[in-house]
Specification:
Number of helices: 5
Low-confidence stretches: none
Largest sheet: 2 strands, antiparallel
Strand order of the largest sheet: 1-2
Radius of gyration: 35 Å
Number of strands: 2
Distance between the termini: 98 Å
Mean pLDDT: 79
């Protein structure tokens, strides 16, 4: 009898038997070999681990198998050298220091200009300490020395403009600590 007395029971009609799943590639016995996450490409066209994506430059290896960083193109050189010159307005000597450390091997121009900016920022820190001492010793009269920092701002802007055009810039007053 039917478990639900409200529904009339329909007679069993012959029909096609329920379909059994067909064995596919996933049901085949596993063959020895690496799993997809161990180096096989799960999708066609996907690069192997450690290989660059299409359109991405791969690592460059020089003589002896040593890693050689990719050089910067001229517009990137100008951009990073300008950042090294105007970055101190926000971050002090940290901006040219980081740019120099990260990009010194990729561009001779960025290396030279970031070092120049870093040296100028170190010179400014020394001048600031000297100006503070002079101001304290002269009871504030020596505060006029701080007007020299206006010239420093002008020099930093001139350096950024010159670097934006791709020309090197040498600060007129600069102690070269980093060579």
């Amino acid at each position: 009898m039917s478990e639900n007395p409200q529904e009339p029971q329909s007679p069993q009609q012959p029909g096609p038997p329920p379909q059994q799943p067909q064995p596919g590639p996933s049901d085949a016995p596993a063959e020895p070999g690496p799993a997809p996450y161990q180096g096989q490409q799960p999708y066609p066209g996907q690069p192997q681990p450690g290989q660059p994506y299409p359109g991405q430059p791969g690592p460059a290896y020089g003589p002896g198998g040593q890693y050689q960083p990719q050089p910067l193109n001229p517009s990137d050189e100008r951009m990073w050298s300008v950042f090294a010159q105007i970055g101190p307005f926000l971050l002090g000597f940290i901006a040219p220091l980081v740019i120099w450390l990260v990009l010194k091997d990729r561009s001779r121009f960025v290396d030279q200009e970031a070092k120049e900016s870093l040296n100028f920022q170190i010179t400014l820190v020394i001048a600031l300490i000297a100006a503070a001492i002079i101001t304290a010793v002269t009871f504030g009269i020596g505060g006029i020395v701080y007007l020299a920092f206006i010239a420093a701002i002008v020099f930093m802007i001139l350096a950024a403009v010159a670097n934006g055009k791709g020309a090197p810039y040498r600060y007129p007053v600069n102690i070269r600590f980093v060579k």
